[in-house]
Amino acid sequence: MNLTDTMSSDVTAEDIAEELLYRTGNTLVAEDLGQVAQCFFVPQYIDTLLGSRLIETYESVVEALESVRQYYRKNGVVDVVRTVVTAEFLDADTIGSTHVSRLIRSEGELFRAPYPAYSILRRFGDEWKIASSSYAILDAPDHNRALNPGWDVTETKV
Description:
By secondary structure, the chain is α+β, with helices and mostly antiparallel strands. Helix content is 28%, strand content 38%.
């Protein structure tokens, strides 16, 4: 999908958000996480119940993705179904997008409650990338920790 002419009537904010979900999903399940730079901008913030974390390098993004992949493997998650709920242009180069993730085990069994995430997507040159994300994972402290590898956090901010 050519997303360079994003303000035309042919490409919507939802199209861009769905394309980024698709690309990041492929990056997450790939053996080679080398495409991270095509999907994520650094520096960027990740916000979870543990707090906000500034990620300043692509290596740190890869570390977080690998940590989440390990969490999925440990819990038997074989698929992640992510659906855009809303996406809107905040300006010509910025989109605010909310999506819901459902973690699926084999046989199509839902692992636990779906959770929402809000992301800011920004256009850099001809590419759209994730600039920040806020996850509302209320029922899985281990998943929040997986998004924040290396943090020595013993309590949440709830």
